[in-house]
C-alpha cells in the first residue's frame, strides 16, 4: 500500500485500486466494522439495525472467544496462520476473556456486536494476525457457534436447577408422605389424597419435562462453524477438527441447514423450557391457593413474601405470582421466535438477529423460576391440623361406594345409593383412607424410590456431560469454563 497525491493506492495480486481522499476518510471511520466499505451507514439505519444486539452480546463474549481459539487453531493447521500467530491469538483471546470477567471489556454500539469488538481488539493488539482471524467464517456461523456454546452452558444451569427442585420435591413428599390432603376436581373436594402425592406428582412431571430439555440440549450440541454464510468457503477448512476442539458431540453437516436451523433450534429449546415452566405455574397456583387463610394447608415464610404499600398486614406471594406470570413470557418467547422465522427463505436473513433477545430472555426466566420454586419448597410449611380438618364427610363418598362394591353390589348401584344419601356419611379417618390406597403411584404407595432412581440417572448423565465439556474447553483455552 502506498500513498499518492490526494488518493490512496491499494495494490495486491497485480490489481490496482485507487481510493480517493474522501473514500479514505470514510474507510477510516468505518474501519471498526467487519463489513466496512467506502460509504457510511445512515445513522438512523445503524441505530435501527444494531438495536440492543451489542448489549445482548456482552454475555456471548466468552463463548465467541472460545470459538475463535478453536477456529484459529484450525486455520494454523491448514497454513492460513503461522504457529506464532495462532499462539498470539490464543493468548490475546484469553486476555479478552479475563478482561470481560473482571469488567474491563465492553461491546459498544459502534461495534454492532461482540464479534466485531473482539476482532477489533485482536487487530489493535496483534495487527495482521487479528485481520486473519475471520478467514473461512462469516458472522453467521460465528454467532451461531457463540450461541450454541452459550446455550450449552445455560442448559446445564437449567438442568442442575431442575434436578435440585425435583430432589427437594421428593424430600418434601417423603417427609409428608402420610399427611392427608383433600384431593380436588373442579376445585371441589373430591377424594382423600396426601401432601406426599401432591409433591411427588410435580417431581415426576418435572422429570419428564427435564427429559425434553435434555433432548433439546442434544440437538443444540452440533458445531455450525465452517458453514460461513450458508454455502461454505473455497478453503480446505477442517470443520470436524473445530467441532472436536469445542467439545461438540457432532458436526452439523449440511452448511445450508446450519443457517436454516437458526431460530428453529432456539424455538425447540424454548418449547422444552415452556413445558418446565408450565409445570411450575400450576405448582405456584396451587401454593397461592392453598396458602390462603381460607385454606391454610401451607404457609410461606415472611422472607418469601413482599408487603403492601398501603395495607400494613399484607404478606403477598409475589414470587409465586411472578412464576405464574413469567411462565407465560417463556411461551411468548417461543411463539415470537417461531413467528420471526416462519416465512423466511433459505440462507441467512437479518431477521434472525431478532430471535436472540427472546431466546436469551426465555433461558433466563426458566432458570430463575426453577430457582424460586426450589427455594419455596425448601421453606414451605405444612399445617397438618388444617389439612385434616378439611376432610368433610362427603369426601369419603367414593370410598363408601367401594365398600358396598366389596360386599357384592355393582359399582353403579353403590354409586347411586351413596350419592342419594350423602347426609348419612360419617366422618372417617383420613389417615386410613390414604393408607388403603395401595396401587402403584397412589397415596399409600407413592413409589418415590422410582423417581429417585430416575433422578439419579439424570444427574449422572448431566455430571458426565458437564465434565466432558469442561475438560474439552479447558484443554483448548487453558481457562476454567463458567456457567451463565
Q: Your description of this structure?
A:
The protein is mainly alpha-helical. It has four domains: 1-30, no CATH class; 31-135, Fumarase/aspartase (N-terminal domain) (Fumarase C, Chain B, domain 1, Orthogonal Bundle), CATH 1.10.275.10; 147-229 and 248-388 and 447-477, Fumarase C, Chain A, domain 2 (Up-down Bundle); 394-427, no CATH class. The protein has 19 helices and nine strands. The strands form four sheets. The chain has a three-stranded antiparallel sheet with strand order 1-2-3. It has a two-stranded antiparallel ribbon with strand order 4-5. Strands 6-7 form a two-stranded parallel sheet. The longest helix is centred in the N-terminal third of the chain and has 37 residues, at 139-175. Residues 1-20 and 22-31 have low confidence and may be disordered.
Net shape: elongated
Helix content: 55-70%
Q: Which oligomerization state do the chains in this entry correspond to?
A: single chain
In round numbers, the mean pLDDT is: 90
Secondary-structure element order, N to C: EEEHHHHHHHHEEHEHEHHEHHEHHHHH
Separate helix tally: 19
Helix/strand/pairing class, anyone?
mainly alpha
User: What is the tally of beta strands?
Assistant: 9
CATH-defined topology of the largest domain: Fumarase C, Chain A, domain 2
| CATH architecture classification of the largest domain | Up-down Bundle
**Spans where pLDDT lies below 50 across 5 or more residues:** 1-20, 22-31
Which CATH class of the largest domain is shown?
Answer: Mainly Alpha
How far the N terminus sits from the C terminus, by CA atoms, comes to 44 Å
**Rg from Cα:** 30 Å
Largest sheet: 3 strands, antiparallel
Which range does the strand content fall in?
A: 5-15%
Reading side by side through the largest sheet, how are the strands ordered?
1-2-3
